[in-house]
Amino acid sequence: MAATVTVRLPDGSERTLPAGATAADLAAAIGPRLAKAALAAKIDGRLVDLRAVLPDGAEVAVVTPESDDGREIIRHSTAHIMAQAVVRLWPGARYAIGPVIDDGFYYDFELPGGAHFSEDDLARIDSEMRKVIAEDQPFVRREHPIDEGLAIFDDQPYKQEIIRAVARGADEVDAAVGTDGASVVSTYENTKAFVDLCRGPHVPSTGRLGHFRLMRVAGAYWRGDVHREQLQRIYGTAWESEAALAAYLHRLEEAERRDHRKLGHELDLFSFPEEVGSGLPVFHPKGGIVRLAMEDYSRRRHVEAGYDFVYSPHITKSSLFEESGHLDWYADAMYPPMTLDDGTQYHVKPMNCPFHILVFRSRQRSYRELPMRMFEFGSVYRYEKSGVVQGLTRVRGMTQDDAHIFCTRDQMAGELSSLLTFVLELLRDYGLDDFWLELSTKPEDKAVGDDDEWEDATEVLRSVAEGRGLELALDEGGGAFYGPKISVQARDAIGRSWQMSTIQLDFQLPQRFGLEYIGADNAKHRPIMIHRALFGSVERFFGVLLEHYAGNLPTWLSPEQVRVLPVRDDHVPYAQGATDRLVREGFRAGTEDASEPLGTRIRRAKLEKVPYVLVVGDDDVAGGTVGVNRRGHDRPERGVPLDELVRLVREDVDMRRRAP
RNA sequence: GCGCCCGUAGCUCAGUGCGGAUAGAGCACCGGACUUGUAAUCCGGAGGUCGCGGGUUCAAGUCCCGCCGGGCGUUCCA
């Protein structure tokens, strides 16, 4: 055996160390600061402990806290000490799995006697964890043959189940296990009393941790299977520094501040009356105006883009959904039927497509009519499971900006391409401008439509996405059996992704409904159908915009665009005159009288996020001017001629200028 | 659907641990006074089947059960 090993570092340089040197030795050899910061190492792309021995010729990188790998290791190690704390506090507790997730980690437990964690327990667990950290326990890795592993965890049935899965080489276990061989499992021992089954790697010792916070308790099924034991899950977040933790918590607060449910209530836009039912919003006058503005603009754009407008009822005989197939595979998500005296069943519609199809089928169609683009703000009802309804983003009653395009095979590519352009332009007009796309392709097993159609459609979607320079995530085999799909995701002002529009090809429904048109060859042909919704649902889009703008809707969407405040009662006539002028110009404006101090009225208007708050007093009456407080500006601008103000607001509205 | 948590005035919350007499506060609302030049004027008033139903108890906002509504989670994996 050679006396030295040579490894290559990320910068391309090489280091030679004595044989048997560990990753920690390498870090020390590079420099004392790195040695101190080092958490783990990556050898030939695989994350390992700092104590791992370096093989000769390997590519080695030292993992430090301020990296994705580093944070992941910190989170994983923090999950372990949480498990240790829980076992200390609840002797006999069983621990299942404790993986890393986005921004944090969780660990699943089963407490003795079927006990449950309460929110108060989090504080106890937290302080026990800090004791474990203060003890600076090492994470000692060991490898054991299967039977030895089973013996170590003889009172931990979940761990044993995992070990057996590893032994079987079960494919649900991460492939990394394979490098150890399925005959061996690894453990990490913190103390004699606490050993956990784990692939690793971990930080060298618990003293390296501490910037964490336990977030919440939740229930979760063992292995995600509803038929298995329900375990208690604790979620936490952990970071490399107090500052990073604080920044993360701040991001959460920011998201909370923007919560559309909260803003919707504060700004008196909508509510969810208990009397109506879960997931069924009602829009108040101010929210109604916002919707009106959103919908009107959408309608205008659809007219310009060559759509026809159709209307369809909210209920229909069940037979329509039998013909469409919805009742076969979608019944769970539908409201149950109502039965009339003669026994006929009716369903509230969960989708608009069958109606649009009937419009198409209402008479014989010629190829000259295609493409036909039918648009409807169609209200649909879906029986979402009670646990999933959430604000406006997941509701049981919603209005889709739904359209179905019927076209020939030859027109398909052109339609898809112009459609995607249309979607992106329209979403931009509403103020979203950071997009990425997800393309779901043909599922492996079964699919309707011929391969040629699938391939062609998929290719068009792909090329349009790429041509636009947009990020494209491929969801290989993730399409529905009836056609490929592209979904447009938008990132909002604080970087969160929302799924917005979907464009879905459908090779199935035209077939089920026997749709056809007469081609130039005087023969019957089957049209291709494209389903698409740009907002998804008006309600959801409303919620997304509200969060995106943190309630500061751009002027063109604001429920009240201008509020005029007279300084004293005797300024009211002038204020009213200004308001009348603004209303004549087509703006949403109002006067508030002077029965309260100006400061109070300004404050209220600002809290209500009115984009333009005008103050008029003696000087303005004399000069035909207004004092302008623009939302987002600290200082008012005095003495602005009314004409100038009208011009300003007009420009804001016409350009659909983004809110400050 | 399931698990945990929550539901008190229009809103935000106190009171619930350990059951005890007319259930409190701030904001909002209504009335009056103040006549205001840029983020909370003063005084007064009204407002509650303590989510709903059932149970335990001499006594229930408080304890138990069911339902309704809401929040969070159900991020495949040692």
Helical region count? 21
| Biggest sheet overview | 8 strands, mixed
Write out the strand line-up for the largest beta sheet, numbering strands in chain order. 16-21-22-29-26-25-23-24
Residues in helices, as a percent range? 25-40%
CA radius of gyration: 31 Å
Low-confidence stretches: 171-181
Could you explain the architecture of this structure?
It is a single chain. Helices cover 35% and strands 26% of the residues. It contains 21 helices and 34 strands. The longest helix has 22 residues. The chain is of the alpha+beta class and 660 residues long. The protein binds one RNA strand of 78 nucleotides through helix 6, strand 10, strand 12, strand 13 and helix 9.
